[in-house]
């Protein structure tokens, strides 16, 4: 016989740690109305929309979106030869025991 999931069983799987939220009366009524129009409870409505917003926020911080031109420039920079900047060159000189260059000296 297939198992049926009751509201009580579904709720038991959810955390018992609520996240309190204060809303003014107008906002509370708007959320309640939207939940009723969606055919879900206020808790379900808020959980769904808070999680969607949280996912979008996390994705926006973790994913870098580039235009085609920027992506091509990035790929070209990665595939071209690396050219060390002055600080890196100086670091290698010190590591190898080569005295640092004085201002105005050539390569």
Tell me what you see in this structure.
The structure is a single chain. This protein is mainly alpha-helical. The protein has a domain at 23-79. 61% of the residues lie in helices and 0% in strands. The protein has five helices and no strands. It is elongated, with a radius of gyration of 29 Å. The termini are far apart. The model has no long low-confidence stretch (mean pLDDT 85). Pfam families: TacA1. Keywords: Toxin-antitoxin system. Belongs to the TacA antitoxin family. This is DUF1778 domain-containing protein. One of its GO terms (biological process) is regulation of DNA-templated transcription.
* Biggest sheet statistics: none
Radius of gyration: 29 Å
In terms of structural class, how would the helical and strand content be classed?
A: mainly alpha
Shape: elongated
Protein name: DUF1778 domain-containing protein
Keywords: Toxin-antitoxin system
Family: Belongs to the TacA antitoxin family.
């Amino acid at each position: 016989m297939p198992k049926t999931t009751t509201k009580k069983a579904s709720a038991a799987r959810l955390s018992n740690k609520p996240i309190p939220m204060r809303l003014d009366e107008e906002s509370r009524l708007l959320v309640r109305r939207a939940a009723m129009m969606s055919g879900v409870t206020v808790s379900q409505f808020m959980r769904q929309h808070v999680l969607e917003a949280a996912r979008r926020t996390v994705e926006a911080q973790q994913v870098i979106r580039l235009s085609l031109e920027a992506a091509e420039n990035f790929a070209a920079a990665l595939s071209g030869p690396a050219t060390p900047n002055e600080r890196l060159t100086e670091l290698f000189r010190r590591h190898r025991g080569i005295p640092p260059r004085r201002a105005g000296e050539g390569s």
